[in-house]
From TrEMBL:
Family assignment from sequence similarity: Belongs to the alanine racemase family.
Pfam families xref list: Ala_racemase_C, Ala_racemase_N, Mur_ligase, Mur_ligase_M
Annotated residues for binding of substrate: 569, 746
Positions where N6-(pyridoxal phosphate)lysine occurs in the chain: 472
Domain Alanine racemase C-terminal: 676-800
EC number(s) given by UniProt: 5.1.1.1
Protein name, as recorded: Alanine racemase
InterPro entries linked to this entry: Ala_racemase, Ala_racemase/Decarboxylase_C, Ala_racemase_C, Ala_racemase_N, Mur-like_cat_sf, Mur_ligase_C_dom_sf, Mur_ligase_cen, Mur_ligase_N
Chemical reaction(s) catalysed: L-alanine = D-alanine
Keyword Ligase: yes
Pathway: Amino-acid biosynthesis; D-alanine biosynthesis; D-alanine from L-alanine: step 1/1
Swiss-Prot/TrEMBL keywords: Isomerase, Ligase, Pyridoxal phosphate
């Protein structure tokens, strides 16, 4: 595709054209640009992002072709096309590219299971087909065109997923993907906000299959059948299936009049449904049951997201070991690039398959990516990548096999390591070697959910209102470095911590944005200047100590003045303002960055009058301070609940705390927030006990019947409080909430799994979606803050990104 062809194709106008460039790659993010020709950069304007601000950076990184929505200033050797909407232009180009290929394309949509079905189909079919597919969950208006652009003549099967959040979106995706075969996985409540009913959502999703030859769906969902019958063409064959569970892991699948009997290694309902969709697709493609069963036996569980785990020697490992494709590598490198906890970054990569590029072109491009992302060390594993060692300019090592690599003297220290490999390289063994193995219990932090919550609150603010995010108390149990790094990436204005040593750790971990220290002690003043920290000053004595400490210095760190307006905790009272303003007037080295106070009851409507009184007092007191200053500091009053309930009191900045982590004290708002943390463990042992026997310390667990007890490795030393013992607390085992038995031990808890099929090693969820932290808090009559901040630091944190 030539640049000049884009003007007519995208219905745009060429601002400037230097040459007749050939378009080889589409990019919307400057972080994904490597050094190569033929790159077309799209300046896309979003809610919190404007791509036009990055066109100069894209040019500096090698882009010479641009699609923009307004006039931009670029050197004469750039080609610039102006269009009405850059995203629409991207979709038009991807659609034109799709029309060049006539091999089968499978489209997948539904409320849940899209990515797993796509990945499992790839696992089942990649021995026979050269497959191009969506990277991870690239199923949006932006992700779909980028996925389809990967199609080449070297592929002979495409598998793309499509997701929508509101009406009229699927028609655009259908025109890009143009699937010949389809799978409608299911219909449910997920992502329901943009639709009036379940049927309306099914109707919209069904539009993906408007021109399909065959569409597969489960007869369990009548909404899907009605939607398909009303949408697809008369030539489309609708293939409904149902199943019956037989003994053991055997299933009988009914496809029309045909019975397919097969064995599945998965037993949970979602995995069974996803696997049967894949089995029916193989049957539709003409595979016999012997081949289908042999392929199903090879299925592995799919990791849906990148996982960043604590590793040995003060390092981190990013686990992306379930597949290996070029676009997925760019996604993973982008995630690695955003991690600033360690300066040294290493990539361990296996041979790449089915890229549509020659070996020389492929690995030269990978070397470009490594250099562009400033990778410190590259390790290639596999015969093909080792042959290309001469193409790499980054510091590199090569091994013919995973065994060769694992038997080497490779070690890591103070670095972040991305491990990405194709399934047959078994790179999970590499991750296991590097991973820090302190505890079998894991707190899983979903960084995508955290970002969603951040954007939810940002959308409530006026554009000029700044945002401070609290990361005190180990970021409410989630981990200081990792969460602060994400917030820095998303350009929050301030971070807030309780003590100076928390801030020092963040600075040492690469956090450079302003940090307010809410409770600095006099012996920590020396750290304020050294680490560029800004203290909260809340009393005359503290202010005088601060001034004495910095008396001989040329300048003092800027301060944040806390006013007492009704919380009766810390802060200057009204009768202290005269002395405070005198000091501010006389000491010109004192720089007041902000004046603030704290609402005592912003989450409770019963305290609305009191909150208004606090706000009036805050305005009056802060004005007294402003009168003696030649500049105007920031004012901030609202916490998480205040952001929701009192938009008139947002002033110049707000402080977001527990809401970022998925818990809003204003209860009816929580349905709009995403669950950030999931605390998981596993079953250590299952044993039968007889009626009359006892369980645990103090013999308080008494068996009133024959029972089956599962022991899990979490106890009060991990933050699972003794209050949860004796049936008060419940954990999720196999989708069912089961009660605790007996007292909670320091390191272990016993659960009643009577009448359940439970094996050692099975996953157990302490909190997440079900039960939620609110459930746990209500069981022991406390608040979510206490549950979160009680989680011990010996519990390993894992960070996942979608």
């Amino acid at each position: 595709m030539k640049f000049s062809e884009l003007e007519k194709l995208c219905k745009g106008k060429i601002q400037q054209q230097a040459n007749e460039a050939e378009i080889k790659e589409l990019v919307t993010d400057t972080r994904n640009i490597s050094i190569r020709a033929g790159l077309l950069f799209f300046a896309i304007e979003g809610i919190n992002h404007d791509g036009h601000e990055f066109v100069t950076e894209a040019y500096e990184k090698g882009a010479r072709c641009f699609v923009v929505e307004r006039e931009v200033s670029l050197p004469d050797d750039a080609n610039v096309l102006e269009v009405r909407q850059s995203l629409l232009a991207l979709q038009m180009i991807a659609r034109a590219h799709r029309l060049q290929f006539d091999y089968p394309v499978i489209g997948v949509t539904g409320s849940n299971g899209k990515t797993i079905v796509k990945e499992w189909l790839t696992q089942l079919l990649d021995y026979k087909y050269s497959i191009v597919k969506s990277p991870k969950s690239y199923n949006s208006q932006l992700g779909v065109p980028l996925s389809v652009w990967q199609m080449t003549a070297q592929h002979n099967l495409g598998i793309f997923e499509a997701g929508i959040s509101e009406r009229s979106e699927m028609e655009r995706l259908e025109r890009i993907i143009q699937p010949t075969l389809g799978i409608f996985t299911n219909i449910g409540e997920a992502h329901n906000a943009g639709f009036e009913s379940l049927q309306q959502k099914a109707d919209e999703k069904a539009k993906l299959f408007a021109s399909c030859q065959k569409v597969i769906f489960s007869s369990e969902y009548p909404e899907i059948r009605r939607a398909l019958e009303a949408t697809v063409s008369e030539e489309t064959e609708l293939i409904a299936w149902s199943f019956e569970k037989l003994e053991g892991h055997q299933f009988k699948v009914l496809v029309g009049e045909t019975e397919l009997v097969l064995k599945l290694k998965f037993s949970d309902p979602a995995s069974v449904e996803n696997a049967i969709h894949c089995v029916v697709m193989l049957y539709v493609l003409g595979f016999g049951m012997d081949v289908i069963q042999s392929r199903v036996d090879t299925l592995n569980s799919v990791k849906m997201r990148l996982e960043m785990k604590q590793a040995v020697n003060r390092s981190y490992v990013i686990d992306d070991t379930y597949n290996n494709d070029l676009h997925g590598l760019e996604v993973a490198l982008d995630f690695l690039h955003r991690q600033n906890q360690k300066k040294k970054k290493t990539v361990i990569l296996s041979d790449l398959y089915q890229t549509g590029l020659s070996g020389e072109a492929l690995y030269a491009r990978i070397d470009d990516l490594m250099r562009n992302q400033q990778i410190s060390r590259f390790i290639g594993v596999g015969m093909e990548i080792s042959k290309a060692r001469g193409l790499f300019h980054t510091k590199a090592e090569f091994y013919d096999s995973t065994d060769d690599f694992l038997s080497s003297d490779f070690s890591i220290q103070d670095e972040i390591v991305l491990v990405k490999g194709a399934r047959d390289f078994q790179f999970e063994r590499v991750v296991q070697k590097l991973e820090y193995k302190a505890h079998g219990t894991i707190l899983e932090i979903n960084m995508e959910s955290l970002t969603n919550n951040l954007n939810y609150y940002r959308a409530k603010l006026r554009p000029e209102v700044k945002l401070m995010v609290m990361v005190k108390a180990f970021a409410y149990g989630g981990g200081n470095f990792e969460i602060a790094n994400l917030l820095q990436f998303h350009k929050v204005d301030y971070l807030g911590v309780a003590y100076a040593d928390e801030a020092v750790e963040l600075r040492r971990g690469g956090i450079h944005i302003p940090i307010m220290v809410m409770n600095p002690s006099s012996d920590s003043f020396r750290l304020l200047k050294e680490y560029n920290l800004e203290p909260e000053i809340y009393s005359l004595d503290q202010l005088l100590d601060f001034m004495d400490f910095f008396e001989a210095e040329d300048h003092m760190p800027p301060i944040h003045i806390k006013l007492e307006t009704g919380m009766n905790r810390l802060g200057f009272k009204a009768n202290e303002l005269k002395r405070l303003t005198e000091i501010l007037t006389l000491n010109k080295k004192l720089k007041v960055r902000s004046v603030f106070s704290h609402l005592a009851g912003s989450e409770d409507p019963r305290h609305e009058d009191y909150t208004k009184q606090q706000a009036q007092k805050f305005e009056s007191m802060s004005e007294e301070i402003f009168k003696v200053l030649w500049y105007k500091p920031l004012r901030h009053l609202c916490n998480t609940a205040g952001i929701d309930n009192y938009p008139n009191y947002h002033y110049d900045m707000v402080r977001l705390g527990i809401g970022l982590y998925g818990f809003d004290p204003v209860m009816d708002e929580e349905k709009k927030l995403s669950t950030v943390g999931t605390l998981k463990t596993h079953v250590s042992q299952v044993k039968a006990i007889n009626k009359g026997e006892t369980v645990g310390y103090g013999r308080l667990g008494f068996a009133q019947r024959d029972m089956k007890i599962a022991t899990v490795p979490i106890g009060y030393a991990d933050g699972y409080l003794r209050a949860f013992g004796n049936g008060v607390g419940k954990m999720n085992v196999g989708g069912k909430l089961v009660p605790t038995v007996g007292n909670i031990c320091m390191d272990m808890t016993m659960l009643d799994v009577t009448d359940m099929e439970v094996r050692s090693g099975e996953e157990v969820v302490i909190f997440g979606e079900n039960p939620s932290i609110h459930d746990l808090a209500s069981w022991i009559h406390t608040i979510p803050y206490e549950i979160l901040t009680n989680i011990s630091q010996r519990v390993k944190r894992t960070y996942i990104s979608g």
